């Protein structure tokens, strides 16, 4: 008799699953359309997650003692902080950038995390869609971007013991496969790793599994997200900015969208390094009762994948 196929999912022993304020519709430090931070912490813990990100600086308490107490009593730990940078503008923005980064890096370090997610600045406004600057960089701007990102990686590591992971993002200059590869090829792997967001990369036409298999040594962190292919086709055809596209539901609940997360997680496991995989379902703005059941279903789905 031939053996029956096992229904047990593969073990993803090197993958640590978490979620983020983003999955509760939180994009800003303070916004009347967002749930209070206490509710986010209560509900992310109730959904079965152990790890969280800080989200936009100022949303969660910025006092390390307060935040440590609030997370610990809910059984939560912090995996990373997040910063926004516009380093392609060159040395003139360094001091302002560092002032922004330093506070967030200090809180991230105090919470015992080891990663700082770095998101490039948007070339069009994520709320209004207004075009702020050209959507492509000059050769000089690419040199500023790569060189100053390396400097940021060095300074953050030396001063705070954190590793930066740069997040390719829709409506930024690090978005498509072409631009992501150009950025990786132009930066030192010892100083700069990547936060691969599966949804943003698919939104911009990239293949996450291919990127992991090709640039595995540069993948330092994952954001798990899916896009609705039908809505994506519409927003691409219409040239819709990212913020309004999210409001239209372009980022959807897994496993309804693309890319399939099972092969992404399997490829990440094959790297044989410990990786955070943080769920981020962009939902700003959303009704306050919507995130919790989605988060619970998503956590159950990821368990069915072995995570």
TrEMBL record:
Residues 41-304 form the Xylose isomerase-like TIM barrel domain. InterPro entries: IolE/XylAMocC-like (IPR050312), Xyl_isomerase-like_sf (IPR036237), Xyl_isomerase-like_TIM-brl (IPR013022). Transmembrane segments: none annotated. It comes from the Bacteria. This is Xylose isomerase-like TIM barrel domain-containing protein.
């Amino acid at each position: 008799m031939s053996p029956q196929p096992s229904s047990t999912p593969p073990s993803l022993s090197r993958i640590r699953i978490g979620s983020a304020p983003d999955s509760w519709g939180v994009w800003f430090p303070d916004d009347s359309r967002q749930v209070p931070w206490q509710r986010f912490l209560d509900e992310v813990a109730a959904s079965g997650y152990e790890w969280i990100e800080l989200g936009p600086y100022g949303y969660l308490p910025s006092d390390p003692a307060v935040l440590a107490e609030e997370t610990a009593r809910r059984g939560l730990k912090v995996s990373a902080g997040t910063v926004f940078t516009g380093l392609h503008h060159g040395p003139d923005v360094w001091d302002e950038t560092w002032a922004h980064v330093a506070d967030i890096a200090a809180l991230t370090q105090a919470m015992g995390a080891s990663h700082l997610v770095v998101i490039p600045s948007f070339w069009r406004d994520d709320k209004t869609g207004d075009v702020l600057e050209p959507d492509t960089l000059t050769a000089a701007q690419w040199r500023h971007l790569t060189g100053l990102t390396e400097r940021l990686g060095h300074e953050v590591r030396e001063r705070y013991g954190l590793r930066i992971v740069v997040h390719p993002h829709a409506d930024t200059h690090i978005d498509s496969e072409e631009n992501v590869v150009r950025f990786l090829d132009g930066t030192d792997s010892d100083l700069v790793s990547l936060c691969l967001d599966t949804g943003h990369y698919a939104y911009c036409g990239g293949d996450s599994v291919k990127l992991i298999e090709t640039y595995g040594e540069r993948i330092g962190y994952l954001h798990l997200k899916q896009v609705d292919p039908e809505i994506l086709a519409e927003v691409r055809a219409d040239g819709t900015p990212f913020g309004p596209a999210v409001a239209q539901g372009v980022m959807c609940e897994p496993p309804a969208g693309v890319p399939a997360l099972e092969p992404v997680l399997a490829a990440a496991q094959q790297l044989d390094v410990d990786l955070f995989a943080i769920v981020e379902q962009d939902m700003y703005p959303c009704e306050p009762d919507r995130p919790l059941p989605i988060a619970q279903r998503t956590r159950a789905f990821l368990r069915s994948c072995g995570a």
